[in-house]
Structure formats: structure tokens, C-alpha cells
Write a structure and sequence with these properties.
- InterPro entries: HTH_LacI (IPR000843), LacI/GalR-like_sensor (IPR046335), Lambda_DNA-bd_dom_sf (IPR010982), Peripla_BP_I (IPR028082).
- Pfam families: LacI, Peripla_BP_3.
- Residues 2-56 form the HTH lacI-type domain.
- By secondary structure, the protein is an alpha/beta fold.
- Strand 1 (61-67), helix 5 (78-92) and strand 2 (97-100) form a beta-alpha-beta unit.
- The chain contains 12 helices and 11 strands.
- Helix 1 packs across helix 3, helix 5 (78-92) packs across helix 12 and helix 10 (224-235) packs across helix 11 (249-261).
- A 6-stranded parallel sheet has the order 2-1-3-4-5-10, sandwiched between helices. The chain has a 5-stranded mixed sheet with strand order 6-7-8-9-11, sandwiched between helices.
- The chain has 3 domains: 4-56, Orthogonal Bundle (434 Repressor (Amino-terminal Domain)), CATH 1.10.260.40; 61-164 and 296-321, Rossmann fold; 165-292, Response regulator (Rossmann fold, 3-Layer(aba) Sandwich).
């Protein structure tokens, strides 16, 4: 196995210089740095990550706190999966690793903080279930560089990334009103999570401006079965709504199934609009009209924000709110 001493011997430099090339390259001349890297590549030498961590005090690892709640299948949600792929790709392009953090099982507010300290991660990306878990909030209080997704997060070195959820709700309402609907209902996300509240407020604002009231607003949990159950509830009302805005695409797919079972034609009998633009939205008949989020943009922005914090932890970062857009398909 190649060693650092072999690289030094072949390069004609000291072991300390080779170490600096891999740990603090900015203090080594470009000519020497390139020579050492070429020799290392030629003999297949790779620096020991543990040793590099001790030398630089940095692990080059970003922790992922994905607190989806054990009662819900958060890992399989396609929206979150797309964000995770973009996040990992952007970090990997800059030599950073993404580590899923398993919380300490002991009670108290420090279970995530202990995981951060145990693995010596440089910063944390948080995908929270909206519960405002004190153990998650403790990360911010401890000064750990944190970027939260769809969760307003404040602290000494924290920011958050989200979509224009209120604007997306307004787009959905405007579209349905322009289609001539007046009995309009919604299936909300789990309240009081930040995205669910924002989408509902934006949606209701436009209805109110048009002199309309909600024709029902059962809550779902972002997943298919909750949308199916909520839609059955809405279709049992008299008069039933002629249009339904589901605040998440998986719930909208459940709503489509409920409408089909009730013998209703979409959109002739009831129009359905979703939110997210997951892959299946374009595949299921009749094609789901939906408010699209920039999933790749969210993941990439999270990576860029955490990297910026690791470079300069003293400059606060403003939250990033990405625009949404309406994708019109056959369901409305």
C-alpha cells in the first residue's frame, strides 16, 4: 500500500510538505502542489481521512437530520428524494460527504447535538417533520452551522430554504377561478407545518378577494392515503365541490383515486390541482395540474448555503425562497 513517505521520497520533498498539500494546499506553491498530486495519483496514494480530520479540525462531512417521524414513511416521498439527490450531488462535487445522522436514543434535547459531536460533522442540513422538535432547535442554539428545508430556522449560524408556498397557493386558486369554479375546496397539508400554512393562506387569500369561501378543508399528511380519505369526505358533502386543491401531489393522486371510485369524471365533474410536480404527476391519467417546486434548486441551494457557512461562519445568510410555477395538465 502506498504511503505518504513514498510520495515524499518520489517527489523530493518532506513528509510535512506532502501533508500540507492535502490538508492546507493554499500554503504550498502551485508547482510543488501539482508535483505531489501527480506522484500521489501515479502510485495510487490516498490520504487517510481520519488523519486529515485531526490535522484540519474538519471532517468534510455534512450531517443530515431527517426527522420525518417514525410513524410516517418519509423516506419514500418522491419530493424529498429528489431534493436529497440534488443535495448530495452538489456536496460531492466539492469533496464533501453527506452523513445521515442517527439521533442518540437517550432522552433530552441534545440527542441530535450529541450525534453531531460524535461524528464531528462540519454542518447540518435539516429536513424536519414540522414538529419544532426541541432536539432539532438545540442545534441552532449550540451554534452548529445549519440549513433547514421548509422550516423557518434561526440561530447564530442558521438559514433556511423554501419555495414560495403562498404564491403557489395563489396560483392554484387563480387557475380554478379562471376555469369558472365557485365551490372550491382544499386538502391541506399537516397543520401547522410551515409549507401547509403558507399554501393554505395564499389559496384562501385569492378566494377571499373573489368573494368566495372554502367549500371544505380537511387536512392530510402529504401522503396518498390521506388525500384519498379527505377527498371521500369532500365528495360526501352536499353540494359537493366542483374543484379541489390538494396541497401535495401524493394527496392529489389519492384524491383522483377517490373521484374515480365515486364514478366522477376529472375534470368535467370535479377538477383537481396538486402541488410539487413529482414525476408521477405527468404520467397518471388525465395528467395532474400542479404547482411545481424547483426540487433540484432546493437541494443545490441547501448545499451552497452550508458550504458558504463553512467558509465564513460569521456572515449571516438570508433565507432563500425559490419561485413556484403552475403546470396545467388534464385534471383541471
Amino acid at each position: 500500500m502506498s504511503s505518504i513517505r513514498e510520495v515524499a521520497r518520489r517527489s523530493g520533498v518532506s513528509v510535512a510538505t506532502v501533508s500540507r498539500v492535502f490538508n492546507t494546499p493554499e500554503v504550498v506553491s502551485q508547482q510543488t502542489r501539482q508535483l505531489v498530486l501527480d506522484v500521489a495519483a501515479e502510485i495510487g496514494y490516498l490520504p487517510n481521512e481520519s488523519a486529515r480530520t485531526l490535522a484540519t479540525k474538519k471532517s468534510n462531512m455534512v450531517g443530515l437530520v431527517w426527522d420525518t417521524d417514525h410513524r410516517r414513511p418519509g423516506w419514500r416521498h418522491p419530493f424529498l428524494q429528489d431534493i436529497l439527490v440534488a443535495l448530495k450531488s452538489a456536496l460531492s462535487a466539492h469533496g464533501l460527504h453527506l452523513l445521515m445522522l442517527a439521533p442518540d436514543q437517550s432522552p433530552g434535547q441534545s440527542r441530535f447535538l450529541r450525534a453531531v459531536q460524535r461524528h464531528n460533522v462540519d454542518g447540518v442540513v435539516i429536513i424536519d417533520n414540522g414538529s419544532r422538535d426541541p432536539a432539532v432547535l438545540a442545534l441552532a442554539d449550540a451554534g452548529v452551522p445549519c440549513v433547514a428545508l421548509d422550516l423557518r430556522f434561526t440561530g447564530p449560524a442558521c438559514t433556511y430554504i423554501t419555495s414560495d408556498n403562498a404564491g403557489g397557493g395563489r396560483l392554484a386558486a387563480q387557475h380554478l377561478i379562471e376555469r369558472g369554479h365557485r365551490r372550491i375546496a382544499t386538502i391541506t397539508g399537516p397543520l401547522p407545518t410551515y409549507p401547509a400554512v403558507e399554501r393554505l393562506e395564499g389559496f384562501c387569500q385569492v378566494l377571499s378577494e373573489a368573494g368566495l369561501e372554502l367549500a371544505g378543508s380537511p387536512a392530510g399528511d402529504w401522503y396518498l392515503e390521506s388525500g384519498y380519505t379527505a377527498m371521500k369526505e369532500l365528495l360526501s358533502t352536499d353540494p359537493r365541490p366542483t374543484a379541489v386543491f390538494a396541497a401535495g401531489d401524493e394527496m392529489a393522486v389519492g384524491a383522483l383515486r377517490a373521484a374515480d371510485e365515486a364514478g366522477l369524471r376529472v375534470p368535467a365533474d370535479v377538477a383537481i390541482v396538486g402541488f410539487d410536480d413529482i414525476e408521477v404527476a405527468a404520467l397518471i391519467p388525465p395528467g395532474l395540474t400542479t404547482v411545481a417546486q424547483d426540487k433540484t434548486g432546493i437541494g443545490t441551494a441547501a448545499a451552497e448555503s452550508i458550504m458558504s457557512m463553512l467558509t465564513d461562519a460569521t456572515t449571516p445568510l438570508a433565507p432563500i425562497i425559490l419561485p413556484t410555477s403552475l403546470i396545467i395538465r388534464g385534471s383541471s
